[in-house]
Amino acid sequence: MKSRELLPNLTLPEPLKSVEEVVRELLSEMLANGFKGISINITGETHLLAGKELSDNYSADISIPSQKAELIVCSENSSVLISYINRWKAVLRLAVKEQELNSLTVSLIDTTDQLVSLYSLSKGSPSSLTPAELGEYFVEKIYDVIPCQAVLLIDPNGSHKFSGDKHFQREMVDRWNQAENTNKLFRAGETAKNQDVLVANFTETRSGGVVIYAQEHITTQSKELIETVVSYVDGILALSSLHEIELQNAVLNRDIEMAGLLADQVMPKWTPSVQGIEVAARCNYARLASGDFYNYFQTPYGLLAAVGDVSGKGLPAALVMTMVSTTVAIASSQVNTPDPEEVINIVNKEVYEYLSNAGVFVTMAITCWDSQSLMLSIANAGHSPVLAVSSESKVIEAGSPPLGVLPEITTGSTQIQFNENDFLLLGSDGVVEQENSEGTQIGYDDFEKFVCSQHGKSSEKIVDNIFKMVEQYSQGVPQDDDRTVLIVKRTL
Amino acid sequence: MKIEVNKKDENNAGVKISGRFDAFAAPDVSIALKKLMENGTYNIRVDLSETNFIDSTALAQLVKMMKRARQGNGDLTLCYPSEPVTVILELTALDKAFKIEAESRSRAMAETAAMSADSKPNYFYEES
Fold first, then answer.
1. Do residues A484 and A293 touch, judged by C-beta distance below 8 A?
2. Other CB atoms closer than 10 Å to residue A467's CB: what's the count?
3. I need a surface site. Which of A62, A233, A291, A413 has the fewest CB within 10 A?
4. Residues of chain A with C-beta less than 8 angstroms from the C-beta of B56
5. What is the pTM of this model?
6. In whole angstroms, what is the distance from residue A76 CA to residue A487 CA?
7. Which bin fits A164, alpha (ψ -120 to 50), beta or left (φ > 0)?
């Protein structure tokens, strides 16, 4: 007969539940051997296991080191009881072991659950999600991983994502708002039911964080788990926002590059063919777009060439540059005589208002070559360097402030008799003010000496040599300003 | 870069710009000058005796403020420009557009010292 059938109504105290089958078999055997009632005193309470409670009792201590217990039996012969003491002790030992194993299994399952959740947290951070969607995603995951009532996640943009028992939401928002502590993780308070409310600040993203409404006091183990999870989420959110910033920057850079390319189209790529002179020009930008520009046009009298430099750098300067360069083109077509001052005056009148509103100015030098008189005329509005090089060099100083400073300017104009191999340099300050690794600039004096040494070379070669010299001088110091050189050289 | 602002009275103020005056410093100078003009102070003396570097963005900022001061019937006077600043002002011929007071260095120093002794700057800005 099965023991379960023998003792259909058996109810065991907690420690013995895990060894029910063994207990049933033992009790059955004892009943068969003449015991009329069997009780056990365990954890301070006496439980009747089998038979009846009778007054004629014997008891035996069956305690083991980790569990106190007493067996109370009703029997006519107490000597039989002694033979069962060791068997009951063995049952108790088994029960305690089973209990330990059970709790270990439960904690292992819990840990495994957490590990599985952590795994899914780490595996499932889809890169296709936006930072806002990532917040939604992670708040659910944190709620799964950490044993808690509710989780509030404040993403780096300040928006709130919530998961768990809605009753706690308002209190958690208040805790976040009141939390002045900037520690990584701290206890912001506890509830009447000894539940911890934790606040964790994101450190990577520098804003946002997590509020956790725990089920109870947080253990050291759980604290470490929370720190790990929060730090992971923090890292991913930081990476994601970084990705978004990089993306925005990439789009912006592409636009600037495109604008730079368009601005570059303003500068002529063709070589003028004018009797008696040769022209070469180059502009190297410090950034994607240039505030320097050069332009030249064949005119009825010969050639007009201009070099300008917009104050400031980059795209804003490039936008102004295209406008001013176009105005020079229009003005040069309106003036049929080799009069650079008149051209510069027209340009200033056209652009003054615009430059004033933009808060910038433009330095500019214009030269006109008259192939009839073989004279070169130069007008200079705040521009440098402008050098006329023959057997010696001559600095053509600015006759007026740059364009956009005053509504009317009087640059005056300098006339130069040009002989074979003489040349005029219209440069920009970027070629003179380049610094070396010691922070020393090339300077106007040394630049002038170098330019003088180029007398006799072709215009193309002079441009080339100047750029090489500036590059060598920089000793690897990055270019800080746009560099422009235009050479008009007398041939025959 | 350091900016010191001394408001002498309702219409007159002195602003001293020391150190490197470039695109990074220009916005702070602009804020200081705008603040004065918004309060009706259009006669401003800008002390450039201790400005050791100036670039085109900074110059453009000064030009803009000079125009604004003149619109308010005042002026932006550049005082005692240091050698590097003087070179740039001459190269660009901006010395023809600005009112410039180029006193001797010793007098400039004495005046600055006297100014400092008279009154402390109304506020003080130092770039970190």
1. yes
2. 15
3. A413
4. 309, 311-312, 361, 363, 429
5. 0.60
6. 130
7. left
Question: Given its phi and psi angles, is residue A364 left (phi above 0), alpha (psi -120 to 50 degrees) or beta?
Answer: beta
Interface predicted TM-score (ipTM) of this complex, two decimals: 0.78
> pLDDT, tens digit, for every residue of A345-369?
999 999 999 999 989 999 999 999 9
Q: What are phi and psi of A168, to 5 degrees?
A: -90, -10
- CATH number (domain holding residue B89): 3.30.750.24
Farthest-apart Cα atoms in chain B, separation: 36
Radius of gyration of chain A (CA): 46
Q: Are A282 and A470 in contact (CB under 8 A)?
A: no
Q: Which residues on adjacent β-strands are paired with residue A83?
A: none
| Domains detected in chain A | 3-102 (no CATH), 124-243 (3.30.450.30), 265-490 (3.60.40.10)
Q: Are strands A386-389 and A423-427 parallel, antiparallel or unpaired?
A: antiparallel
When CB atoms are compared, the residue of A311, A384, A399 closest to B60 is: A311
Which residues of chain B are at the A interface, by a Cβ-Cβ cutoff of 8 Å?
23, 56-57, 59-61, 63-64, 67, 91-94, 96-97
**What count of residues does chain B have?**
128
Alpha-carbon gap, residue A156 to A146, rounded angstroms: 21
Write out chain B's pLDDT in tens, 128 residues: 889 999 888 889 999 999 999 888 888 999 999 999 999 999 999 999 999 999 888 999 999 999 999 999 999 999 999 999 999 999 999 999 999 998 655 454 555 555 554 444 454 444 43
Residue type, A460: E
* Residues B22 and B40 sit within 8 Å (Cβ to Cβ): no
Q: Please name the amino acid found at residue A314.
A: G
Which of A353, A361, A395 is CA-nearest to residue A381? A361
Q: Domain span at residue B83?
A: 2-126
Tell me the residue type at A26: L
Q: Phi/psi of residue A194, each to 5°?
A: 60, 30
Q: How many CB atoms lie within 10 A of CB A103?
A: 10
Distance from CA of A442 to the nearest CA of B (A): 14
- Cα first-last separation, chain B: 9
Indicate the SS3 state at residue A365: strand
